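Researcher: Go.
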Amino acid sequence: MIHRRFNLLIALAVLSVFLLSSLLLSSPVRNTLRLPGPQTAPPSSIQEPFSHADTTSTTFTPLHITVTETGGSHDEVVAALVHSFGSQPRAKLDVYQLLPRYGIEDIMATFDLPQKLSSPRRLQSFLSWTEPEQKIPDIWVSATCELDMIRFKENLTMLLEQENTYIFCTVHHADRWAAGTELRKAVTPWLEKGRLEFVALSPHTAEYLQRKSISKWKTTRPALIRYLVPVFPVDLPTEHHGTMDDGENVLLPDAAQEELGFALQGDYDPNRRDYKSLFGRLESFLQSADTEAKKNITMHLLGHGNKPTVPDSIKSHVEFNEHLTYVEYYKIISRTFALVPAFASQHYLDRKASSSVPAALIAGCPLVATEEMMNSYTYLNRDVVWLQEEGEEDMHVIGRVLKMEAEARRRKRLAVRDRRDEIVKENVGRVGGWVEEVLQKVGKSV
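Model: Structure:
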């Protein structure tokens, strides 16, 4: 009996060993072990740019675009670049801005972009070793290139060695890029590698940059110069849906909200605007006023800084509009029937781009413009300006416009808004072409 039990126990033990061995050898766990998945790319690497595939796909590789601004006073240029570059199908945009002012980030947040825009980040964070997860940009849009190239001088060498980044260098002062300057030294290695091109803010500054500055450089590669009009969409409360004579549904400026006023914008610095001469012309205009409209006119001065002294005789007709958000600023301009640039320097006609011209377009307000201005800012046309004839003063133009019917002024404002929308659309298309050229040039997928 004991022997029989012993044999049974031996048989059960052998069976158990057999079954256990079978389970171990055929265990499904062993066959489902996987190697670790793709790891986060190191900071020095870069992802491949996008292809023009379906943008709704969850597997596309984004095009990393960085916009930097180190001046603290070029919000409108940043917004235009953000909208134009951020509207590209696979753009993943990061903005590093020294000092976003007056609610510009709120306007940028309303942009209808393929990828949601994050709030502007601290400038110190750009290419910082304290943020190893930060992507090295495929495209770096330098919104203040004269400053950025100096501020990030040490980073430029590292980026160029990696040969992964392409720079769009936005120029504000075309006369600061002459041969022998520190700026030329900073960008020349990038030009020689074919990884940098310039973006001017008007056709005339692009021409000056080419003819008077860069043409004197000794480089093996020619510099490529583009231009982009710094205009972007803003929701103006003075616009409403209406119907044109031909039945077309459009956004119309509200005639009821038009103010008998004209505007000047910008820093109150007399080196930027000739206020003394302007006040003198307004005083003469009011003294010769022959209509109630002329007598009740208001000059809006939208800006900041030390206010110019206003003569007592015209104080009731001059209104300083300060400490405004950008939405409030454009709203006031949009209610006026004209914006007067009042350049204090001819430099705004050859080497510098005035902020008054894009401000008028964004707000949908006709600019008082001479033929000389039209020749510089060639994206304007006669349909969107109050043309100042040769020998005519700007205040004479104001008086002439005041004699028009309100409907004629409203139609002119509508034309400005139409041109603004065209330029915004053109900017997006133009930048799309640039990006495609760049990707082909550096051998990336398009």
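Model: The longest strand covers residues 63-69.
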